[in-house]
């Protein structure tokens, strides 16, 4: 295994101090705030010690097989809320209704895996009934921001020839605008029902839950003529786990414990472009 250490606030001394725990035969400088350790004696005990030290120093520590690069992959699939973007759109829409605390509590429990996603979404969307649809545009214009490193990551993966998929338990209102803004190849999300300019409190069609996210990744891979192990999947919540498990590389971004404990890569401090550092030659 190689070990990649990176962090937006890490200094070289901190990185080298953590690297010393592995006693690598070779260290490669990947940037001002990233290094790669090669040729060391890997063990579970060493991994746990390094992860503990790295977390204390606000550094992401990634153990990955040597030689893996973007060229090993054909697709990057991303969750939207709290992954590609910094907010949970449904919570911000609910804020326009004066119901953010109630909706956010349900969202948080669903992302931790404590509630069935489809049921929780139905409950949350019902609370939005009667809200003027202009609230969606306000959320997009005033509150939605791309996560740190997101645009740089997307630019690099597209330049490397990978396709991009945004698959979300959120809403098409936002995924469609992000597709145009960021040049994404594929999108899939839930459609909010709007009648006479107001939200009805219902979703049109089937709900994009964990199983549907997995099916979407598999369907797009089949469309591209590649196996799902050619996909990188990035997410943060429990409803992302099924699609992450079929991927060739799973990336937990600012994720809930149930997710980062099962992912191949956890980016707790770095931006989404930390993926590029991990897969650097």
Structure report:
α3 (89-96) packs antiparallel against α4 (100-111). This protein has helices at 12-19, 44-56, 89-96, 100-111, 117-126, 134-142, 150-159, 172-182, 210-224, 241-245, 257-260, 274-278, and strands at 2-6, 26-31, 34-38, 60-64, 75-78, 163-171, 186-195, 198-204, 231-235, 249-253, 265-267. A 7-stranded mixed β-sheet has the order 8-7-6-5-9-10-11, with helices on both faces. Strands 2-3-1-4 form a 4-stranded antiparallel β-sheet. The chain has a domain at 1-66: Alpha-Beta Plaits (2-Layer Sandwich), CATH 3.30.70.260. It is of the alpha/beta class and 281 residues long. The chain contains 12 helices and 11 strands. 46% of the residues are buried. It holds the Pfam family Hydrolase.
Summarize the main sheet: 7 strands, mixed
Helix share bin: 25-40%
The beta-strand count equals 11
The first-to-last residue Cα distance is 14 Å
Please name the CATH architecture of the domain at 1-66.
2-Layer Sandwich
Mean of pLDDT: 96
Q: In CATH, what is the class of the domain at 1-66?
A: Alpha Beta
CATH superfamily of the domain at 1-66: ACT domain
CATH topology name of the domain at 1-66: Alpha-Beta Plaits
Beta-strand residue percentage: 15-25%
Q: Which stretches of 5+ consecutive residues score pLDDT under 50?
A: none
Kindly list the characteristics that best describe this protein.
281 residues, alpha/beta, 7-stranded mixed beta sheet, 12 helices, 23% strand, hydrolase activity, HAD-like_SerB, serine biosynthesis, PSP
């Amino acid at each position: 295994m190689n070990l990649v250490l990176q962090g937006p606030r890490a200094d070289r001394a901190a990185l080298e101090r953590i690297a010393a725990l592995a006693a690598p035969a070779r260290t490669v400088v990947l940037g001002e705030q990233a290094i790669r350790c090669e040729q060391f004696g890997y063990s579970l005990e060493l991994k746990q010690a390094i992860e503990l030290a790295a977390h204390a120093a606000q550094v992401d520590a990634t153990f990955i097989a040597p030689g893996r690069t973007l060229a090993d992959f054909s697709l990057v699939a991303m969750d939207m809320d709290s992954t590609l973007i910094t907010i949970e759109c449904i919570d911000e829409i609910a804020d326009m209704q004066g119901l953010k605390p109630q909706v956010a509590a349900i969202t948080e429990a669903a992302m931790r895996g404590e509630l069935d996603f489809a049921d929780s979404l139905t409950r949350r969307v019902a609370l939005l009934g009667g809200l003027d649809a202009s609230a969606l545009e306000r959320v997009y214009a005033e509150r939605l921001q791309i996560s740190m490193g997101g645009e740089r990551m997307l630019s690099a993966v597209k330049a490397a020839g990978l396709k991009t998929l945004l698959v979300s338990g959120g809403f098409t209102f936002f995924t469609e605008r992000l597709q145009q803004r960021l040049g994404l190849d594929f999108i899939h999300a839930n459609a909010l029902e709007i009648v006479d300019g107001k939200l009805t409190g219902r979703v049109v069609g089937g709900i994009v839950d964990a199983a549907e996210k997995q099916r979407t990744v598999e369907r797009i891979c089949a469309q591209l003529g590649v196996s799902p192990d050619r996909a990188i999947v990035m997410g943060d919540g429990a409803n992302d786990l099924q699609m992450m498990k079929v991927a060739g590389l799973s990336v937990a971004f600012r994720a809930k414990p149930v997710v980062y404990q099962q992912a191949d890569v956890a980016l707790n401090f770095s931006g989404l472009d930390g993926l590029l550092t991990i897969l650097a030659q």
